[in-house]
Design a protein that fits this description.
Chain lengths: 113, 113
């Protein structure tokens, strides 16, 4: 069964450093998303992406964040200058848009020290 | 904004039924979802229901929707120890293929053998 994959599973970085989180969505899907879950909190929407551009973003997704689809398979989230409060589990999701189903990857745990 | 609320904990004995409840505020919610998160894993889509339905059954899972009260429940029949996980309720107003999901905080289900 096709699945969303994410790398790395765990990333530790120092405050102020740039990180890139990688995702490979399901191959025939056209819509891509990033969500995050701070420990003990709700899963929160960050951004959605379709047709090589951002469709919607939340207020969390400020200028420190960017997304890119650098090739036909990867979807990346970049945090330019990480802060302690960026520590969270980051989930990538994809959907084909025709149905209501969003499929999530296993997540990348980002720890900012 | 939209809000989704769930009780945080539920403990049941193996073999009993579990009922996990959720309330939401957005009256224009189109789809309502249940996701399962096992320890260290991502979000697994269990089932979802369209807002014009009252009930959906899928093997041991039964979803009930009371649209008037904005109440969603997930019943797991014959609960097994492998059902121990966090269950997230989520909703969306699916206007296009890329509408974000709004999640609750999750209900931690503990199954006692």
């Amino acid at each position: 069964e096709p699945e969303v994959t994410q790398t790395p599973s765990h990333q530790v970085t120092q405050m102020g450093q740039e990180v890139i989180l990688r995702c490979v969505p399901i191959s025939n899907h056209l819509y891509f998303y990033w969500y995050r879950q701070i420990l003990g909190q709700k899963v929160e929407f960050l951004v959605s992406f379709y047709n090589n551009e951002i469709s919607e973003k939340s207020e969390i997704f400020d200028d420190q964040f960017s997304v890119e689809r650098p090739d036909g398979s990867n979807f990346t989230l970049k945090i330019r200058s990480t802060k302690l409060e960026d520590s969270a589990m980051y989930f990538c999701a994809s959907s084909d848009g025709r149905a209501a189903e969003q499929y999530f990857g296993p997540g990348t745990r980002l720890t900012v020290t | 904004g939209e809000d989704v609320e769930q009780s945080l904990f539920l403990s049941v004995r193996e073999g009993d039924s579990s009922v996990i409840n959720c309330t939401y505020t957005d009256s224009s919610s189109t789809y309502l979802y249940w996701y399962k998160q096992e320890p260290g894993a991502g979000l697994q889509l269990l089932t979802y229901i369209f807002s014009n339905m009252d009930m959906k059954q899928d093997q041991r899972l039964t979803v009930l929707l009371n649209k008037k009260d904005k109440h969603l429940s997930l019943r797991i029949a014959d609960t097994q120890t492998g059902d121990s996980a966090i269950y997230f309720c989520a909703e969306t107003t699916l206007n296009s293929g890329n509408t974000p999901l709004v999640f609750g905080k999750g209900t931690r289900l503990s199954v006692i053998a």
